User: Fold these one by one.
Assistant:
Number 1:
Amino acid sequence: MILAQQIISGLATGSLYALAALGLVLIFKTSDVVNFAQGEMAMFGTFVAFTLLTSVGLPFWGAFLLALIFAAIFGAGIERIVLRPLAKAPLISVMIATLGLFQIINGVAGWIWGYELQPFPTALSGAPITVAGIVFTMQNLMNIGVAMVIMFGFFLLFKFSILGVAMRAVAENRTAAKLMGVPTDRILALTWGLGGILAATAGILTAPVTNLDINFMATLQIKAFTAGVLGGFTSLPGAVIGGLALGVLENLVGQWNSQLQTPFAFGLIVLVLVIRPAGLLGTIQKKKV
Amino acid sequence: MKRFMAGLLSLVMVAGLAAGCSEPAKDTTKAPDTAPAATTPADQPKKVEVPGVTDTTVKVGGFAAQSGGVAPIGISVRKGFEAYIKYVNDAGGVHGRKIEIVKVVDDEFTAAKALAASKELVESDKVFAMAPVLGTPGVQASMDYWVEQNIPVVYPMTGIEQTAHPAKKNVFAVQPNNYDEAKILTQYAIQDLGKKKVAVLWQNTDMGKQGLKGVQDQVKASGGELVYEAAHELKAVDFATPVLNAKAKGAEAVILYTTIAESVGIMKEMQKQGLTAVPLTSYVNADPVNLPKLAGDAAVGLITGGWVPVADPNSPDIKKFNEVYGKYIIGADGKPEAPNAYSTAGWIAAELLVKGLQDAGKDLTREKFVAALEALKNWNGIMAKDISYGPGDRRGSTAFYLNKVEKKDGNIVMLPINTQPYRLK
């Protein structure tokens, strides 16, 4: 019975990793940029929602929606102001710029909202549900559900919509895409806007579990990187599976040795990569020059 | 960082209640009890030179983050320290000497910068003693150097046990350390609550490890049993595994040696999994305002440590503290600032420093200063309370004031359990 509960709790935690990983993978998939500021974008968006909830007094879903709109503009704005001027710069410079954004967003958030841990309300409250001796909370179920819906939605988008095809084209070869008439700049801004929305969604769903401070996404984002890598970093379903697997794995190792929980989980990921460098569902990327 | 931030929150109980009084009260410090004797006869033989000490001044200095994430704490600590020192100086100083705060270095809560600050203060600025010194990284990094230099250090602000175990001749702790507090919580769970089966969920950091060691060392002595212990990482999210195991092992008390976010996560998981054991946690989490807000119902029944008694806002000491602090610390809006928990800690460091300087007498040396502090027995200042040292004892405060989280009239509140000090039996 402990095992079943551990797996379920692991899936719930893993869905948080997956949510945080989706935005990362989306941005990487389209623009080749590993966005180190993803977790901080999530944090900032969550604080915006928090302010709308507590200071403005909006209902949860209203605050959620407005925070997502803010996050989309924020993400697209980052692309326009920081990323686009760096389009011709080496990829490493772009990544350093996102590291810089990490520090800037974190510092500004601390300046605005302070450093204290704040309670964040949950969208779905209510007593935990017990099924066959296994306990769930509504929050757990919602997190898994939202991660699945987003994953599936983006899967369809990439596979079947013109926009998805354009995003894939930009990812594949930006110059060729431009020559074929794809508005690459607009596509990239859109990708970052969507990345911002995913970040804020992840943050707003995570905050009721962890409570909110300016560093609440930091550890989670490292796990999200791991989940992404495990899943292949170019595959959205891969990111979700990677996140869920990591969540469950941590709990199982914790049963055996609590201090080795994190090292063991990461050790296993290194092992997966050694055996299958593209990750579970990834495709081998040819180096672009 | 969290560890320390939370560490001083226990003082909220004092500072939080201390707001808004201005009536002057009886001065209990008697700081300037001798008239200044600024000049000494020229024919007197030249005394042995003591670093940082002249006939008219004594230099001190320390480090506390003034920028970065810990800055709100570091700045408050510095202000609290400065407020009391200015107050004493304005009243004539100690034995005719004004206390000069050479600087409070911004170490940004980093080990390397704090150690560099210690060296600079001792070797270039030649301070007499170090205070205020804030933060686990800086204290840990500087400890060996302080011992080697034999420089008096007044109130290293951190919960790590190295401040008191083993005792260092020149380092005077004030707030209790993780190890001693874990022993107290264990004793209380087993001997006072009768919960003999104890589990410990500890953070995989110094704080958690020292807490675990304290519980392990105390369970047998108290006649209990450690049924389960498990580590978790700082900022961990999923506590299903440790909580389920504690439940399976029949734990009756669960000691949480971790910071506030994780404590809240564990208590919520305990509630979710129906583990009814009594949770106990360190004073670092005993934030009467934020803890109930963060954990809600899940916190009901929690026992927390504490090392300052809940203060009466009308007590003369609290009024005095508010009045003096507000006189010397003016906010950006031009109005007197209200003290907080962290400025209280800075103030206590200053009080202890001044007490040592007074008791050391007019011919100040480091040896006399150390001996004076060592002689303190249950000493009470304005905000410093019940501080004792002795040969081989540098713990400072050993009295505990436990609290319990209860539901009262629909609100979740933290109430004091004991008004008389609770100590290790």
Number 2:
Amino acid sequence: MTTETVTSSLGVLIFSTDNTHLYQCDTTEQFTLVFFGQKVVFRFCELIVFKSKIRKIDLFNLFNTDVPDIELIHLPHCDRFFALSTLQILELRELFSGSFAMMELNSIIQRRIVRKAL
Amino acid sequence: MKDILRRHQVLSEEITDILNKQVKIEAQSSASYLALAAWCDVRGYDNCAAFFFKQSEEERKHQMKIFRYLTDMECNAISPAVAESQYEFGSLREVFEKALEMEISVTDAIHDIVRACRKAGDIATEEFMRWFVQEQIEEEFVARRTLELFDVLGEDKIALGMIEERVLHVEYDGGEEG
């Protein structure tokens, strides 16, 4: 088994789905979300808030035919709005689920191997 | 790759959510105590009103203690919206019954947090919550004892006067003898 770290000018690629990617920059300690070609930079606390907003969207309500199947999400740190379709929400949830699993795995490695050696 | 998760997220999302929920419970409790104090105050039960004003301040302190813990841990602390409190009661006894019910409800919520901390292996927050567990023992004791004054003294005018006199002196001695 081989492991490969994908890096770019945005930093280390943490996780990808078909249309979304999340990068971590070790220098600035910021994250870049590439979402259907758009780039948004987050500090960690902002990323957590965004993730939480995505998690709290009531998907069943979006399937209700009486309401539009679009959810508006405001990103106050960069003053942008995302109008998210149900599929985009599902893709973001997959991205966050995978990304945070990878970050937790990295945390475990750091705790068990790197910090233990210090 | 830097461990940014550990550097910036000391608490898990689950623990952050449950602590934010507790901030709201404490805020609601503080507001409810104000309603109890107002009921007593306008009916001339000055000491009972003072008792509930003090309780309201205590709950506010609890709320801020958890709120500050969340911000200290670099978590997203949410300033809660508080619903309208019950402000109509049939009797003074009913007011104290409401107070005891609120304290029991807060205790249950605190114990839920401790259980969640144990499940998540969050030793720091469990340790932080220890103070609240002890505090709730005291709060429940005081609420229960004041309510028991009604059983001991009754509810006629003389009894209510005696309750007024005694309510500010009900204290928990921490289980000490003597």
Number 3:
Amino acid sequence: MVNAWTVGGIVAVIAGLVGFFVVLRGSAFAAHAVPNGSFAGAAGAVWLNINVLAGLGAFALLGAAGIGWLGHRDRQDVATALTLVLLLGLGALFLSFTAESAPAAYSLLFGEILGVSNNQLVPTLGLAAGCVALIAFLYRPLLLSSVLSELGEVRGIPRQALELAFLACIALATTMTVPVVGTTLIFSLMIGAPAAARSFAGTPGRALVLSVAIAVAIVWLAIAAAYQLDLPVGFFVGVLSGAAYAIGRAWAAWRGSSARRSARLPASDGGPNDPASAGAFGGS
Amino acid sequence: MTQIAPVSADASPGTAPALAVEHVGAVLGGRQVLHDVSFALGAGELAGLIGSNGAGKTTLLRVILGLQAQSVGVVRIGGQAPGRRASGVGYVPQKFELDPDLPVRARDLVALGIDGNRFGIPLPSRRRRELVQAMLRAVDAERFADARVGELSGGEQQRVLIAHALIQRPRVLLLDEPLASLDLRSEHEVVALLARLAREQRIAVLISAHDVNPLLPAMDRVVYLAGGRAAVGRTDEVIRAEVLSELYGHHVDVLHLHGRVIVVAGPGGEQGSDLTLAHAHGTDLEVSP
Amino acid sequence: MSSVLHAIVEPGFFGSAQVHAALAITGAAALLCGVIGVFTVVRGQSFAGHALSDINATGGSAAFLAGISPVWGYVAISVAAAGAMEAIGIDRRRGRDIATGIVLVVGFGLAALFLFWDTTLSGASNATNEVLFGSIWTLSPGTVPIVIALGAGAITLLAVIYRPLLLSSVSSELAAARGVSVRIVGALYLLALAAAVALTCVAIGAILSTGLLIGPAAGALHLSRRPWSAMASATAIALAASWLGILLAYDSYYWPPVGNGWPVSFFIVVLVFLFYAGARIRAARG
């Protein structure tokens, strides 16, 4: 149980960090495809009787490279869809070669966080540290190109290489988290928490911290609820992520309408010397 | 009026113009988009890059930025050829769309102008903060410095992007159709701001636009593009029926109406395939074939 | 000649009733995917197309729990999910991506619950696999009329909104200027997409649903920019890939490592990808 709390916390920190940029860049499809495609690697590893983590990692990187490479001269979403189905097709093939399929498939999709063992802790921590370091290294170029990719290009940031590096971050996060929490859970955390956080916090730093905090809260709440009610963790993570997003949207809508209301009062939407409208956006 | 000195390859950085474009031609997808375009801008000068859609404006800007290779010719920034990383050039892109949900304030975007291309996490520093504040003041953006960039109006976003581009003190500032989606009042304000910045910060400003009129009061010089060729000079030298007819290769009329200029295609239109290099009217105006 | 044929086509292929059914079903699915896929790719909604197929796990597991045919679960959840995506707002590209993701997140959460109940309450441990991977070979005769009705409905809906949909896919501003309600057209298109995805998931499984929807259309759009010929080529690619895939899967019963055949989805997906790669290479050559 202690292991579940610890590993759940680590996974949530990574999901909150990587997910912040996933949401900022609109890469939700890639964040779904890389973990799901890596499932084929796990199935292949089971068939060949090698380390599952190695299989997962190899196919997560393969998926990231496929999306980056195919997306170079075609729509990103088409590239992602094609890479994903190709990997899933391979996964179906590997699964058909092995006898034990059904329970394995369920645990890869939804994970077995309540059954995390001690020897899973160390590789998870190691991969997490690598992932945090990579995100910290890429922080400024990622932020700049997420705001407006042309600005990054003019400053000499190569668009494709940066995209590939970011996909590699997703792959790394996937490799460490899928064996413990499953593909759907990591996806839920990467989307729900950051999407909610950006509605509340107006600066990159605060939104990033809040994203991590919300992700950790969701995971710990979900583990507690699952333990108490004897229902799957994945259910609570999904529903709580959706709820966090809904609250964030409601907050943003309320904030937007109140900002518009107070902006209308000074009879100006911002002349050069108009101090009255100074507080209109304020807030954060 | 400012004189453009003829630029030679070995001009020293001290006396060289801020931006010199020499005989540049560019090919895009097998099509010749620019033919032998030459002009120069001194520090503190503001020029309009005028032309209709597809005239080659964006291509020329991308060549100057080093994002697109020219087939012939040279571009010099302060006398030196820019590398892939054109640090001497600031740029405001065309028709950008900023997501209102972005958790990025105007202040954050300007700060990314300092070091957005560097790796690692930025450490908070007082010098950095003051630099950003000064830049925000210079573009009249202090009022909305703490608002999300995506929630600002079009004119306000232009100011923030101009500050982002200028904070690394470039010699040249390029703006791609900055007036395209602005209302009349913001249009006025942005042009006035750019004219002031060009003077105060001693930078060369090149603004692309399809309509010459909003820029008329501020422009020192015009680069008029049509069919990939350029006519260069003072506004009253270039925006004339004879010059533009020769550039377009068929007859056009230039009408003056309440201080505004309207360029219309005239009747007929012989193709100007046999145009030759012409130094018209003894000025520095050029019409290149 | 016949010995060559026998080397390619294992004996019994043309006589098997199961094969006939599979060829017919994938043929219909290929036609539908070819037409709808072109719009899906042009509108940049591949993620929505894929998410609708993934979310069928939720509908399927719920139907399993309720003891009704999974088709009804698929249809109900697809329409509900499409409605949710539309309601959250998919006007901006990045916002659309996140909206689709959130719907998928909540859907997965519910699926986790339903699958858990499926296995603990009704002891059906195979529910997971059946729902996730479907199977071309095991379509029950009872569902065929529903599948046909769904397909016909989706095609009819698409024919009705064809012109405004095409216009608003090319430019929503142009469409709005011509008095087209872009939002309603978009919602109706999502409805058609939901129906198509639900039926392809029943017939050929979730993997192939996305594969046949996106791959052939993306390849065809590299070959042709005109809507009709793009749809025709997409359908042709989808048909060729799925029929060739079925043939190979049938042959693979005699292949190593096990004597129960390789999965047909693997062959079809690989073939779709090869067609797509070929189209891209051809387009790049000129």
Number 4:
Amino acid sequence: MTNSIADIEEADVILVTGSNTTENHPVISAFVKRAVTRRGGKLIVVDPRRIKLTEFAEQWLRPNLGTDVAWINGMMHVIIKEDLHAKTFIEERTEKFDELKAMVEKYTPAHVESITGIPARQLMEAARLYAKAPAASILYCMGITQHTTGTDNVKSLANLAMLCGNLGIRGGGVNPLRGQNNVQGACDLGGLPNVLTGYQTVDNLDAIKKLERVWNVTGLPTKPGLKVTEMLPKAHSGELKALYITGENPLVSDPDLNHAEKCLENLEFFVVQDIFLTETAQMADVVLPAKCFAEKDGTFSNTERRVQRVRKAVDPPGSAKDDWKIMCEIATRMGYAMSYKESEIIFDELAGLTPSYAGISYPRIEHEGLHWPCPTPEHPGTPILHGAQFTRGRGLFHAIDWIAPAEVADDDYPMYLTTGRVLYHYHTGTMTMKTDGLNERAPESFVEITRGDAQGIGIDDGDRVTVTSRRGEIQARIRISRKAVDGTVFIPFHFAQAAANRLTNAALDPIAGIPEFKVCAVKLSKGA
Amino acid sequence: MEQTDLMVINGNELPFEPGETILDVARRGHIDIPTLCHLKGTTPTGACRICVVEVKGARTLLPACSTPAAPNMVVRTESPEVVTSRKEILRLMLSSGNHNCAVRGRDDSDWTAFQLGVEKDDGSDALCPVWGDCRLQDLAYRYQVTGEGFQGTPARYPMETANPFIVRDFSRCILCGRCIQACNEVQVNNAISFGYRGAATKIIAAGDRSLKDSDCVFCGECVQVCPVGALVEKDARYQVRPWETQKVRTTCSYCGVGCQLYLHTRDNRVVKVTGVEDEAPNYGSLCVKGRFGFTFIGSEERLTDPLIKENGAFRKASWDEAIGLVAEKLKTIRDEHGGDSIGVLTSARITNEENYIAHKFTRAVLKTNNIDHCARL
């Protein structure tokens, strides 16, 4: 997030898109709801499903799946046409506005309506509402990113925010809501194939040199590595021979599971380190038992870039170990000695190599976490990014044209499928499904559908159906719901038993390598 | 220079900002005014009147939580009149409902009959499930009040245990309305409200249905703010006593909000979770997963030993053997096919320190940049 969580409540207008906030980030949703009910803020929801937040919205736009660039360009078209854009901000802080302007010229409300299904008048009203707000915040989540145009979608939202001068101010910003407790930290500390810790690119020779000196090694690789979504195909082709997975369950969370399974089977050596014998761990050659968060000391970085302490409350079961300790022991056995007395010493080492964490230490975050960038021990942290200028200097507008999703509905697969989480479960359910009460509230997978679509294929609420895509099929129960939109079904991906990801499309965004979980074509048939 | 408004509380001259209440000013000045219904950040209701104070010139005692501070106001927070009023309110609260914390009465025969009645309602012979963690009990001790002298009123509504997470014990409810404020103004789930009238007043969900059939999403904010034993976590009720547990502050391990929470532990098990109040980013709020989804920590299904697959089946192995095998295999593959033939998936679930170590291990030892995690999935 460019801004802090508390900042959401300061916004005059909040635009939420591709985030079912009340179910996936319930505590953040309270900030959104309070902004509306207690502070007079206005909410715009752009989402194909009638999610709970629509009840609080001044405007609810319902786009067809995979048409985000189109409605965002449409809003920008209206804003420029009606002269509502932030001219001083654009002039002083951005570049390539003219290219953007030329691109959105053709995205008239009528044209956008033909692509997205959003009525022209509604788009115009939402655009005015967003543009006229003194401070407007954009919140988004995987509904924006999990598309073959995920990068385009995010850049488009950034365009919109810059167009209205909504960056670097309280109550503004472009705010991705991160879905996993430490996905921010994993990215920050070098858990990515193209960057080292602190987002220093792998070909940044100064950074490489520094790491080599501190680590006392030579020959660190400078060629970008493989993304997770590229590793599996390489396993299939035999180029990738060994895989070491920590705390992940791709055999439920990956797209096109049937194919993913074949890829993993092809590995020469497969290690999984986890807290449970997950679907993925069952395929491993060696399984290493790790501690869970309640048994560890360390830090997590949350969605607002706040580095916070994790503290040990209980002993681990059996001989389970810290994930870092296991890796250190393997490294040592491979001939490179790695050993640390405790997590704080590792933190101090990483702070020395990660510019944005350089000023953070355990004593400083004992009571309250700090937002990175925090470059020095005196620095108070940075709750709001891009204050005086952008990281690259001037904010760059990207002129982006809309392109259709990789798979569209046709005669064979006439319905769209979109996936996500429900309130009571978390990701692949390995943790939440151990709590009886959560299982009681959300016992099994379901296919959320409109009454009209259900009647169209002669099925009723609670009936079992088979859902088929070009990649696989699953069985689940029908749930007729007001949340659904005609022509589209929603299936949660938590449940290995009826894994939605047997159906999803592994087509990737060309830049981010993120799969198009949010759009694929399916057909439904009665019975199982 | 701008003139600062001043008021006097218990002889101390204190500055205040327009819009502040007597309670706000007192708390900032470290003067303790007891409250029950007041919930920080929500609209004051003045419902319980335990915070009444004496204001010079006012005809009656005034609730500190909802009376605005005014220039030159003179307030006494523990005057004899105030104390008498608080005692009366506490006595009435203690006499209506199953407040069996042994402050109910000192008369043995009265206590026995009362306790037997409570046991019937409760299905337990233990004392109140929040004994030692109850604001009403604290105040009863502070003001040395018992429920004596008032006829105890029997519980009007049966206990609700029909949902998996929260027990609603109406016999211990003092109708302060904090749960309603928490639900409607903090979490904005709008699931509960006051229902019925007068002596029949009850906190109801969706036309007096059970929570599981209402808009309740089991965030448990109401349980956290309940000052008495009316709302208690089902699994912890009678099982977890505050004096038997330790509390460790940590960060939630579900989504990316990073809620600050306390893990309450007993005998090396997490038995209850509460939000850390007044601290960013969640200011005490949690969701159903964070508050109730902790069973996995002590699950019997947790992995306890390294496993090595032989002939398609796992067998337990020592760490020495497992680490040796992994090191040898990775070394062989790296040396024969190059580091790029190995991939590492680190995790958005483990700590920063561990991600850093994974990144170091992959690049320095395996000599590849093939490292990623589930950010995209």
